[in-house]
Write a structure and sequence with these properties.
This protein is of the alpha/beta class and 207 residues long. The chain is 34% helix and 14% strand. The chain has a domain of 136 residues: Ribosomal Protein L4, Chain: A. The protein contains seven helices and six strands, in the order E-E-H-H-H-E-H-E-H-E-H-E-H. The chain has a six-stranded mixed β-sheet. A hairpin with a 5-residue loop joins strand 1 and strand 2. Helix 4 packs across helix 5. It starts with a strand and ends with a helix.
């Protein structure tokens, strides 16, 4: 399929042929859901922690004798039934990451790219580089392209340093190299902008 290519100043720069196997693949919402959960699970800190009886600071004295008081048997005031006591089966530090097959990850990425193309939310620019790292200059170019407030731009293996610095102060505008293209970031932004260099590398990577 052919898609129009423009410059950052919204001037026509020809057309590019997109591989249908990558940008017109079946959109699998279930696989994209699995990929997003896999990515978010890896990002979880997993630092939640509760103390057991042995970790709580306090007296180790037996509160009252075992028999004869009429109350339940108790070995420690640090037990969970007392105020300030332990937490039974509470969370401990752990990793939330889980495995996801490479084939599923690849199909999910193909679905994410294809969904943007199918919805008409895929734009192709000739290149993404700036002469100076001015946020105002980049904002003017984005306004010329008539892009929404939520955009992800994917470039080739290396991102232009001036572009990366200028994009830091624009809310809702993300920039990634092609090797960092992932399902979560593609879906969380409304519009996907690809450079010609990014398309070449993505097609080589996913074909």
């Amino acid at each position: 399929m052919k898609v129009k290519v423009t410059s950052l100043d919204n001037k026509a720069a020809g057309e590019i042929e997109l591989a249908e196997s990558i940008f017109a693949a079946p959109v699998r919402a279930d696989l994209m859901h699995r990929a997003v959960r896999w990515q978010l699970a890896k990002k979880q800190a997993g630092t939640h922690n509760t103390k057991t009886v042995g970790e709580i600071r306090g007296s180790t004295r037996k509160p009252w004798k075992q028999k004869g008081s009429g109350r339940a048997r108790t070995a420690s005031l640090r037990s969970p039934q007392f105020r300030g006591g332990a937490v039974i089966f509470g969370p401990t530090p752990r990793s939330h990451a889980h495995k996801l097959p490479k084939k599923v990850r690849k199909m999910a990425l193909l679905s994410a790219l294809s969904s943007k193309q199918a919805e008409g939310k895929l734009r192709v620019v000739e290149s993404a580089s700036l002469k100076n790292a001015k946020t105002s200059g980049l904002a003017r170019r984005l306004a010329k392209l008539k892009l929404p407030a939520s955009v992800l731009l994917i470039d080739g293996p290396e991102i232009d340093e001036n572009l990366a610095r200028a994009a830091r102060n624009i809310v809702g505008f993300d920039v990634l190299p092609q090797q960092g293209a992932n399902v979560y970031d593609i879906l969380r932004r409304d519009t996907l902008v690809l450079t010609k260099n990014a398309i070449e590398h993505l097609e080589a990577r996913l074909s």
